[in-house]
Specification:
Helix content: under 10%
Distance between the termini: 41 Å
Strand content: over 45%
Structural class: mainly beta
Radius of gyration: 13 Å
Low-confidence stretches: none
Length: 124
Amino acid sequence: QVQLVESGGGSVQAGGSLRLSCAAFGYTYSWYSMGWFRQAPGKEREGVATIDSRGSTTYADSVKGRFTISKDNAKNTLYLQMNSLKPEDTAMYYCASTFLLGVAALTPSSYNYWGQGTQVTVSS
């Protein structure tokens, strides 16, 4: 049993920053990948950033240079530092993890466990 709990969302002005956290509870060994995904109203869920068990990261082109994904293994916590936020970043952000091997990192269907989401709203 694995539970993921996101926090850190909120409302900011364009150009501002937020840091999202995802705390993992239960069996958290042997992740292949953990990541952040987002979904805006009327749009498909999309991958934002992922980090695998070895620390290798993958970013969507739309957030490269602005967002940074990291993890603290001792605390079983995943982070997403979001800088230079834009209105188009407005979405519900979800934390996810997978035990599957060799999956496409930014593809939502590759992930087994999901948090409930945290809302990020960026005003212009």
